Amino acid sequence: MLFLIRAAVVIGGLSYLALLRDHPDAVPTLPAVSPQAPAHALAAAFDAMPAETREQLVREGVDGLVRRLGTTRPASADTLAEADRQPPWRGVASR
Fold first, then answer.
1. What H or E segment, with its residue span, contains residue 74?
2. 24: which DSSP letter?
3. CA 95, CA 86: separation in Å to the nearest integer?
4. Rounded distance, CA 58 to CA 50, Å?
5. Using the 8-state DSSP alphabet, how is residue 49 labeled?
6. What tens-digit pLDDT sequence spans the chain (95 residues)?
7. Please, what is the Cα angle at 50 between 60 and 39, to 5 degrees?
8. Contacting residues for 57 by C-beta, under 8 A, at least 6 apart
9. What separation, in Å, do the N-terminal and C-terminal C-alpha atoms of the chain show?
10. What CA–CA distance (Å, rounded) separates 82 from 40?
11. Among candidates 19, 37, 15, which has minimal Cα distance to 27?
């Protein structure tokens, strides 16, 4: 998520500088931003995504939260016995 925010800031900054280079006398003014504007922009961007992408985004986000907040570990699917985990002795036998 942080990558997306950084990418948006860099792209926005480069676009702003390109606009200044092309038209140095026309400095664009930014509208006043209310605290709710980013939430509305995020909701609009989420609604503009295809349904499959939204579902995948939500699924990956929830999986990440479960991994981050989960306190219990899932049951191990390990089928090795304790003897299988012991490597065979290699080297000179003790005398």
1. none
2. T
3. 22
4. 12
5. S
6. 788 888 899 998 888 888 777 776 766 566 666 767 778 888 888 888 888 988 998 888 888 888 888 756 666 677 777 777 777 777 676 66
7. 70
8. 46, 49
9. 61
10. 56
11. 19
